[in-house]
Amino acid sequence: MKLCVMDFDSTLMDGETIDFIAALAGIEAEVSAITEEAMQGRLDFFESLTRRVGLLKGIDYAKVDNVCANLPYMPGAQTLINGLKEQNYKIMVFSGGFRNATSRAKDTLGFDADFSNILHQKDGKLTGLVGGDMMFDFSKGDMLRRIQGILGVSEADTMVIGDGANDRSMFAHAGKRVAFCAKEILKKEANVIIDEKNLAKVLEYL
Questions:
Q1: What distance in Å separates the CA atoms of residue 137 and residue 22, rounded to the nearest whole number?
Q2: Cβ proximity of 14 and 74 under 8 Å
Q3: Distance CA 145, CA 78 (A)
Q4: pLDDT value at position 187?
Q5: Please, which residues have CB within 8 angstroms of residue 36's CB and are 6 or more apart in sequence?
Q6: Predicted pLDDT at 122
Q7: For the chain, which residues make up each domain, given as ranges?
Q8: Are 161 and 180 in contact (CB under 8 A)?
Q9: Half-sphere exposure (CA, 13 Å, Cβ side) for 95?
Q10: Shortest CA distance to 126 belongs to which of 45, 14, 27?
Q11: DSSP code, position 141
């Protein structure tokens, strides 16, 4: 058995979930600017996440769910997942984004598990609070090491795919490190670089 762990936003999905949600309140540009600073590694991920989610306070939770049900997946996403399954990979998604989006993607695309964050809501509105599995810069690497231990998968048999600074921690524990349409800060940590928006290209490096 081998393991593939993918980022979600701007990797498996074509865009940033939080930016799509922010558009509901007309604050997409403000939120997107903070996202970009975090993905470039210029802003602590925890601080950026809590700041951005705080700006979403008051948005209808039902509208958030609807946005997450209609996100555009990256070209080649289904082809990649099908190809990995054929080669006996366990496939997981680690996302600093939200369960509303990653769990739907799991049901649609058929990967094995998702680890992400949960938007707190009360009385049908976002409260501006967030918690979950992927809150910090180190979260993806920490979770990857635990899963490798549970499954008995070595670093050599682990592939990770991501695009931003908060993917660096999982790149440290994988034999194959794919920077997909990535920021320069992540490309420096990669041994596979793909700049075309087509996830099926990953299969050429297996």
A1: 22
A2: yes
A3: 26
A4: 97
A5: none
A6: 98
A7: 2-205
A8: yes
A9: 28
A10: 27
A11: H
Q: Which residues are catalytic?
A: 7, 9
pLDDT at 1: 86
Pairing type for strands 125-132 and 113-122 reads antiparallel
pLDDT value at residue 41: 87
Query: Are the C-beta atoms of residues 12 and 96 closer than 8 Å to each other?
Result: no
Q: How far is Cα 103 from Cα 114, in angstroms, rounded to an integer?
A: 6
SS3 151: helix
* Spans of the chain, pLDDT less than 50: none
From residue 30, how far is each of 11, 132, 147, 159 by CA, in Å?
A: 22, 23, 35, 33
44: its two tokens: 């602590």
Any idea what DSSP says for residue 74? P
| pLDDT single digits (tens) 104-154 | 999 999 999 999 999 999 999 999 999 999 999 999 999 999 999 999 999
Specify the fold of 2-205. Answer: Rossmann fold (3.40.50)
